[in-house]
Amino acid sequence: MTAPATKDPVEQAKAAIEYCYDQGWTDGLPVVPATAADVAACLATTPHPGDEIIGSQPHLSRSVTVAQAAANAIMAGCKPEYFPVVLAAWQAVMQERSSRGAWQSTSGPAPLIVVNGPVRTRLAINYAGGAFGPGFRANATIARAIGLIVRNGYGVRPQELEQATQGLPGRWSVCLGENEEMSPWEPLSVVGGVPAGVDAVSAVLIRTVEYIDNRSTDSAEAVLTDFADTLGRMGAYVGGPHSSGGLVLGPEHAQLLGNAGYSRTDVQEWLFEHAVRDPADMVAAGKGEHVGDGPFHMLPSAQAIPIIVAGAANAAMSMVFRPFGWAAWAGRSVPVEWKEQ
Amino acid sequence: MFETIIDPTVGPAESTETGGLTLAPRPERLAGLRLGLLANTKRNAEQFLADVGRELADRYGIVPVVSVRKPNIVETAPAELMAELTEQCDIVVAGVGDCGSCSASAVADGILLEQAGIPAAVIVSDAFTVSADAMAGLRNAPGYTYVTTPHPVANLTAEGVQARAAQAVPAIVALLTEPVMAAATSA
After folding, report:
1. CA quadruple A168, B44, B94, B121: dihedral sign
2. Distance from CA of A51 to the nearest CA of B (A)
3. What's the whole-number average pLDDT of chain A?
4. Inter-chain contact B75–A68, Cβ cutoff 8 Å?
5. Predicted-assembly ipTM surpassing the 0.95 threshold
6. pTM for the full model?
């Protein structure tokens, strides 16, 4: 790379970005070139040393260090103070049963990253209107950092080791805060074993999200019926014992259910019981190999239907998300570790 | 100009495999050789290999002695399965690489077998040659040759699998008798 002929710092910055493209380091969007000073600034936020290995893919002979994650986080556009959340998100994604071969899969799954705790306010991680994005730096760049670590750290690139058939809108961009303030229930991270009020990250790999728009009833059961119908959709079933599904409830739906006396567990149990298909439907769709005689439960268990609350209380809509493979959320949240100041 | 930009692909300083792959010596004749079949958990993989084994026995006098299924499509076969194959077999057929992860890992299995001195033929569906070749590159075996079969395999009937297996046999025999490191061999 020769130096640009101009001394204009803007032209020089653009040349540096092009240099990163030329190296094959980007996900298609421009990256922020990372320097040793950037990496040092990230390392100053975490108790983990730069040379600590935080992930390995033995079958690819690749491992990733904390310092390498820091460089990729900067490239994704993170501020150094986001880095402890990136590390917790990485750990949350890696501990998922479905993550081992996920990055090469034809399914092309995306991490759904959920942040709980005061860090949401401190780092401006959006949990209200437009929580799925775009428009919020912390949300967008923390999720993107995970994607760049997979690409640059593990060397898994589309149409090479990554074999996603169609990919997924929003891959590497889904990070949201839980709207704890408007949720009728305990934070997701409490379900995941971390005390309330502690910064924590949870993650599940998903294949898509699809909306449920239901603003026409004040009946909790009517809304649950609507959810169960989408959760029971046959297209999401990939063979084997069951499909998979979870919900990101908008605050209005969450409060309707909470006011009707439903706990999170009650909602999970109701949905498990009602997200069923007639075996004849499954046979008609060529998916009857594992169905029996009675109604076929599309979801693995009540517990394996993660329920999250996010968004604004300005319309009664929610999202169903589809965990990758047959794995539900592992059910363990990861506390964010900050360096003692 | 941009020397200060950190290369985000540089990982920990650990030993990586060096040097190219030397294929196992090929046998002069196939009759009487002990055959191992290394399947993955993809639909029709075990049936495909069983049909290949039967064809090789009928047409070439090869003796199928071991048939195993590895538990994980992403990773290479665990050490105990590899030991079973390398101790009890003279040649191995592995596959079917019919997904993003398992095509790459099937090639890795084949390379490990060659390194252990066992001639191996890996079967990959032709939709996944890119990930298979990428794994060969990662394992310092660029040009590693395997047998392709048309995609898809998972939705074939039993008769379809049998026909496809028979179609693949000449290329499998060629790979087991003539060591080549070039492009994929089509079946």
Report:
1. negative
2. 7
3. 94
4. no
5. no
6. 0.87
